[in-house]
Amino acid sequence: MTQSPVVPPNPSPWAHQWRLREDTIYLNHGSFGPPPEPVRQARAAWQEQLDRQPMDFLVRRLEPAWHEARMQLARFVGTSEDNLVFVPNATAAMNIVAASFPLASGDEVLLTDHEYGAVRRIWERAARPVGAAVRIVALPRPMETVEQVVDAIFSAVSPQTRMLVVSHITSPTAVILPVRAICQEARRRGVAVCIDGPHALAQVDVRLDDLDCDFYAASCHKWLSAPFGSGFFYAHPRRQSDVNAVQLSWGVPPPREPSAWWEEFYWSGTVDPSPYLAIPAAIEFFAQVGLDEFRRYTHALAQYARRRLIDLTGLTPLVPDDPQWYGSMAHVPLPPGDAASLQKTLWEQHKIEAPVVSWNGARYIRVSCHLYNNADHIDRLIEALGVELARE
Ligand SMILES: Cc1ncc(COP(=O)(O)O)c(C=O)c1O
To answer: Using a 6 Å cutoff on CB, does residue 95 contact ligand 1?
Structure first.
């Protein structure tokens, strides 16, 4: 299938803010998103304060800085700071939901077949001991309309379904799911929804109050490019009284006692809190770039990658060529073959980092496009894939 050519964007003027290794073509911001210089510097400045006088920093200065960072993040994701807490990653957030959510024998937790594998494991561990079940609903292939996706999900909801776990943007397939419509229908039916959102921050608008989900799990160290080890957990006010801290500590410094739900999460044991405190620097960085400009650039590059991959393979992606369905990641099927070995070869022979995934019996490549990526990176990927696919 040959389509009309897509003109790639000129390299972004923000690319120099990243100091990636020069031997690497890094097309995997979606798995692990390196921070730009201003974020690295902000983190280093917080670490400096911690390392030079830990007592003064942890006992006296941390609390106001933590509140300020949380307030800025809350503003960025459209909710009140009292609805969210910092956690190291989306995985930690999902574990909190699974450990807190009341499940009983016969209850069902419904996940789509595009969910992250570890998320499925988390819910299986929560369900098994109480006699609840995890069910998987297959989404339509290809996906073409919001109604089609919502109908597929809710045709699998039964009177036993207590919880629906849905990615905002899926990991193995890079699809932007219609979470707003899904949450609306779930509310109508009285089913709780946990959105797994680590890919969403910066790629798409996240407005938590408007979304009206019950829980939201996110990592800030993907597209938002905050330091590694920064994420958040959101609980809607209607759910906060159910939430338990998985890792119990003081919550708030004694002799105070935690009273609000989020106070159990302020102090969960000693950690380096610099990743959380540097989140505002990442938000500020994106304010300077402009979120619209970030999305325009990265989507244009992802669209270029997608078109070139389709031209190479002749295969059809899971979603239409529309920013409603994909943002900064191109996702295209590859001919059948060993996914792990192709990913290894791309790195070892071509110094390209891009995940090749085996999903539902087929092989796909996911190409992340951030501000430091450019058309030359995509052209080199296409050239390398041309060589390796011909060899298989
Ligand atoms: C959809 C999805 N959920 C959860 C995770 C886990 O994120 P983290 O490792 O930051 O906890 C990932 C990581 O890639 C993901 O893609």
So the answer is: no
